[in-house]
Design a protein that fits this description.
With 70 residues, this protein is mainly alpha-helical. The protein has one domain (7-67). The protein is 47% helix and 9% strand. The protein is flat, with a radius of gyration of 12 Å. The N and C termini lie far apart (31 Å).
């Protein structure tokens, strides 16, 4: 059963894969933090949030803020 059904589900799911980068004070989404059985949900979440940005429903900066990447 998929865990990602809405934009907010996608944001919550992707937040669990955010980690600090080797570059000082930078964060990124690391797919290695996603369990193998959840990779389909990871892909769906990435597509869903990208679609929201591409369609203009949310800005790239607002998405980064929601994901905790700022």
């Amino acid at each position: 059963m998929t865990k990602v059904k809405t934009f907010e589900d996608a944001v919550q799911f992707l937040r669990s894969a955010v980690k600090f980068s080797n570059i000082k004070n930078q964060k990124h989404i690391d797919p290695a933090l996603v369990n193998a059985e959840d990779l389909g949900d990871y892909q769906k979440a990435m597509v869903l949030v990208r679609h929201e940005v591409d369609s203009g429903k949310i800005s790239q900066d607002d998405l980064k803020n929601k994901l905790g990447l700022d």
